[in-house]
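Trying the structure run again after the queue cleared.
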Amino acid sequence: MGMYRFFLPLNNGSKNALLVALGAVPGALIRWQINNDFLVNIIGAALLGFLLSLHCSRNLKVTLGFGFCGALTTFSGWMFDSAQLLISGLFFKAFGLIFYTFGFGLLAAVVGFWLGKNVKWPGHVQ
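Done. Tokens:
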């Protein structure tokens, strides 16, 4: 079988991994270009909220939700920035970064979800 194994139908796990990878590449590239942890986390939360409100295929949700939004957003970057502020003795800035990112992220997810449920566009079925 050798190299022909690649052409066999993908099992569910392999298919999901491929879908996540397809979404992750553009998500990571956009994150790298924006280079602002707060902004990418807010955008990612809004997009994920919007996506989860839609009636679309599981494959699309895996590709865009896990892949794109997962690679676009950065929990580790957010925590690293917060830790650096704490280590530098900038406690109010650190807690401000933690709480305003969490608050605005949650608000962005709710607004994204609401928009997905309530905005009508041509061809959209609710």
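Helices lie at 12-34, 37-53, 58-72, 75-87, 91-118. Worth checking whether this holds up in the mutant runs.
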